[in-house]
Amino acid sequence: MDKKFNELLVSEFGIGDGTSLSDDVESYITNNILPQFETKDIGVYIKKVNRTTEVDLEPIVSNLSNYEKISRGFVKSSNNDIKKRNLLEFEYRLQKDPTYDYSVSFSFLVGKI
Fold this sequence. Notes:
By secondary structure, the protein is of the alpha+beta class. Helices cover 22% and strands 34% of the residues. The protein folds into 2 domains: 2-34, no CATH class; 37-112, no CATH class. The protein has 3 helices and 5 strands; from the N terminus they run ααβαββββ. The strands form 2 sheets. The chain has a 3-stranded antiparallel β-sheet. It is elongated and about 60 Å long.
């Protein structure tokens, strides 16, 4: 498959680096796939612990499933201040108690437009 694909590839029509397909694939997805989808819901999970010198939470955790978030002490938040800036950008504000250290993890539900 790769051999046939490379035979049919016309590098003059590519984007960026002519020796790599990654920039072409990224451009195709950005221009043709992403515009077909939108964010339907954003879940916010928060982990809050008393501030100490022994604990240093990551501010944002992005590599956990919802199950992993809950099992690692994250709690789903219902009081969220999220503003959509554009198709792919959101602004989130968290009001914090200075006596606690926080870690936030997001969960995006994406659907076809």
